[in-house]
Amino acid sequence: MHVDALKKELRDRRWRMTPQREQILKVFIETNSEHLGAEEVYRYLLNKRINVSKATVYRTVDLLVELGFLRRLQFDEGVYRYELVDKQNKHSHFICNSCGKIYELKNELSPEFVMKEYIDLLNGNGYIVEEFDIKFRGICPKCSEKQLKKHRKSK
Ligand SMILES: [Zn+2]
Ligand SMILES: [Zn+2]
User: Fold this and answer.
1) Given 86, 117, 140, which residue is the final one in a domain?
2) pLDDT at residue 124 in the model
3) Does 30 carry a binding-site annotation?
4) Is 143 labelled as part of a ligand binding site?
5) Ligand nearest to the CA of 142
6) CATH number of 5's domain
7) Sheet hosting strand 92-96, strand order edge to edge
8) For site-directed labelling of 26, which of 72, 81, 123, 133 has its Cα 20 to 30 A away?
């Protein structure tokens, strides 16, 4: 999504794109929608000498979640991370317990397809599912290969 497209969407929804909201969305575009925490967004802006208070950043990311531009993710207890909502590009996440890297699973099975039965079941039981996340934790391919090599050497 481009800044122009974002601006248009904000206009369409009668929300003014304030410079601050725009700056913060730009951070996500420039970093290719890395899974940034509010603290990291704040530091990024600081590095670029953009003057914005920490409180504003925290408030604005949450506002952008409410407005549907960012998705809030929680990989670790007590830490929220955010990424651009890209409707064309739904993906699940895999978090490596060894190196901490967050992988986006984009080319695997579509989560909608995999979860269809579960969602149908919930809907049938009176729950209205509006969204869901799939989060995997484990050892990533790079780390498992490293572990394997270490293991071979020690033999
Ligand atoms: Zn790893
Ligand atoms: Zn992601």
Assistant:
1) 86
2) 93
3) no
4) yes
5) 1
6) 1.10.10.10
7) 102-105, 92-96, 135-138
8) 133
Residue 1 has pLDDT above 70, yes or no: no
Pair of tokens at residue 113: 């397809």
Three-state DSSP string of 14-74: CCCCCHHHHHHHHHHHHCCCCCECHHHHHHHHHHCCCCCCHHHHHHHHHHHHHCCCEEEEE
Structural domain range at position 36: 1-86
For residue 45, what are its two tokens? Answer: 């802006």
- Looking at residue 98, what is its pLDDT? 93
Q: What is the CATH number of the domain that holds 96?
A: 3.30.1490.190
Asked if residue 125 has pLDDT above 70, the reply is yes
Neighbours of ion ligand 1 (CB under 5 A): 96, 98-99, 140, 143
pLDDT at 116 over 90: no
